[in-house]
TrEMBL record:
Record's protein name: Metallophosphoesterase family protein
Start and end residues of each Calcineurin-like phosphoesterase domain: 10-159
Domain of life: Archaea
Xref: InterPro entries: Calcineurin-like_PHP_lpxH, Metallo-depent_PP-like
Gene3D superfamilies: 3.60.21.10
Organism per entry: Halopenitus salinus
Length: 291
């Protein structure tokens, strides 16, 4: 806990090391002498999806000592990601004995006075949601204490939601391998967040003036821009629509374009300046596609 406020919750948050140990060593070295209430890993601990289950077990053996050290600095909690085989019925590492506590997929668990779950439907006011797949609509519509996720390899932070990007991005998809970042989050008793972004490689923090409504972004430092949505603005409007529909409690096939535009405008304002007209055009195109 923070020394000046015993009610402040201090969390070390990371994910997506994909079997790499050097990135975890950088986290261990970078947090030496620090204490946390919780240390959270949001999944993709291994790269078993690409390397095979046997290699994944060897990767778990290799990362375990680092998790043990981190568990000494705070209660260690973790989940599995898609690269750990956590899709479909098999989930090969569920019985593996990692340090700390596994957060259940369809239940809640209380550790050191805090309640955790992977299931958004089980979230209550004081619940901490940790899942691997990113739900961007929860940037605006999250009713719990905190939401942490990963998977997409471009981090994001807004309100009570943080995507931790990656500790280590492999070269499996043809791109260069990269070291990434981790985060120290302090949540005060009034719900106020402080987010300490700690770069261990090639990630940078940015706020896009055109797309600032979607929060602070953490992207690879070789990108020409600080914003993933400047590369494909349809992704921006797709996320805006997804958020608006979630807030309305409906799906696009059942929603009127005007009500989606009104909901989105009230949530995101009018950035970029062409926001409303472009959003309406985007919705009309999608409505036509669904016919």
């Amino acid at each position: 806990m923070a020394a000046d406020d015993v009610e402040t919750l201090r969390l070390l948050c990371m994910g997506d090391n994909h079997g790499d140990v050097d990135s975890l060593e950088r986290v261990v070295d970078g947090t030496e002498g620090e204490e946390f209430d919780f240390v959270i890993h949001v999944g993709d601990i291994t790269n078993a999806w690409f390397d095979g289950v046997d290699e994944g077990r060897e990767q778990l053996d290799a990362v375990t000592p680092y998790f043990e050290t981190l568990h000494e600095r705070g209660e260690f909690l973790y989940i599995w990601g898609n690269r750990d085989g956590a899709i479909g019925p098999e989930q090969p590492f569920q019985a593996y004995d990692l340090p700390g506590t596994f957060i259940p997929e369809d239940d809640t668990i209380t550790v050191a006075g805090e309640t955790f779950t992977q299931n958004p439907e089980l979230v209550e006011d004081e619940t901490i949601l940790v899942n691997h797949y990113w739900h961007p609509e929860l940037l605006e519509h999250f009713a719990g204490k905190a939401y942490f996720s990963g998977h997409i390899h471009t981090g994001r932070y807004k309100n009570k939601a943080l995507n931790t990007a990656f500790l280590y991005r492999t070269a499996d998809h043809g791109a260069d391998a990269l070291f990434g970042a981790y985060f120290v989050v302090e949540i005060a008793s009034d719900g106020t967040w402080q987010v300490d972004f700690r770069n261990i490689g090639q990630v940078r923090k940015g706020i896009c003036p055109r797309h600032q409504a979607l929060g602070v972004q953490f992207v690879p430092d070789y990108w020409r821009q600080d914003c993933q949505f400047c590369y494909d603005e349809d992704d921006f409007y797709s996320e805006v629509v997804r958020t608006a529909l979630y807030g309305l409690g409906t799906v696009q096939e059942e929603a009127e374009i005007d009500e989606v535009v009104e909901s989105a405008t009230s949530t995101f304002g009018a950035t970029p300046p062409s926001f409303e007209s472009r959003l309406r055009e985007f919705l009309e195109e999608r409505t036509e596609d669904h016919r």
